[in-house]
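Narrative summary of target 7.
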Amino acid sequence: MKIKKLSVPLSMTAALAGLIACGVSCAKKNESPTKSTLPPPAEPLPTNAPAAPTNSAAAPAPVVVDNTTVTNVPPATEITNPPPAETTLKAPEPVTTPETNVPGHNTVVEMPTNPPAAPTNFYAPSFVSAQGGAKSSGPVLTPIGQTSEGCTNFFFRFRAGYEHVYHGDNNDSYWLSAKFYAFGDGLRQQAPGNAWLIPDADAEVSSGYVAKPDGDRHPGAGQGLQFRAAFTWPWIHWTELMFTRTNSICPFCRPLALGLGPTVNLGFDHLYDETDYRFARYAGVRLTFNRTGYVEYTVGETEGLDSTRQQVVAEIPFYESRDGEVRYYLRGLWNHGLSSKPDILEGGLFVEMPFSTLVQPDKWGDLVPFAQ
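Modeled conformation, tokenized:
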């Protein structure tokens, strides 16, 4: 009887446990898909596994954060095949010189062992001769004739320009003249012991305004003819290179051949409305620039002008063509007497050229100053 009482509760207990298990299983089936658990983490791929194909249509795998350090990765294989040789030539690299113009750096300049010596003959014949083919830094003049290496050179030039004259009145006039040069270089070479006796000479006959006599009823200046001949002995001479410039048209920007010595001027003045000729004589010292330009101071007399006269004359070339044939001058004269009579003042601008330039149209371009 007791056995029957125990079996009933056991069977009831088993039935109740089966109902509970069935209910729990149904509850799990009815849960929402969003609450599903994540799959376990995937195994890390080996380092030598092939890369996954990029064109696969499967959904991308979820990103898994793995902090595991891989220690068995093999080292990268070194490429031992050399690259192919270049077939194109490279341009040479520019050579850079060290900068020497820096503070504390001194550049050493070696001077020549033998310094240049001055020529024994100061005025060589080639200095003024353009026909001999010699190159010189001095003025180049075309001689009238040259029969031998040692002969004296002669030059004939035409001069024209504008002049202003003051002798108690003011007059503006044209200036036309013919000038003759004679340089005694050849004679000085043939007579070395007596070379100091041989001068350089120039003579000029000009038409323009000249001073009237002080006793004239109408004092002043009038149209007339003037002739002057000058003899200069260049006893002292030297070369100045201070203002030298390369290929310059300014005569003072080239090597200057300077000469200093005594000079004597002789000539006459003649007015067109009178018949007499008034003799003039002066002596002094002259400083020459490349022969053609000069500044001189002389003392003397001119007939018709009162007392002894002091005279300063300057002819300064300020432009010269490349071949040296055409030159422009500034000319000035101051003549002062001891009496109270008015001084003579002259100033002008002149161009000088060979007579052959007038008949050669291809040379007319040299007459335009500073156009080269």
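The chain has a mean pLDDT of 73.
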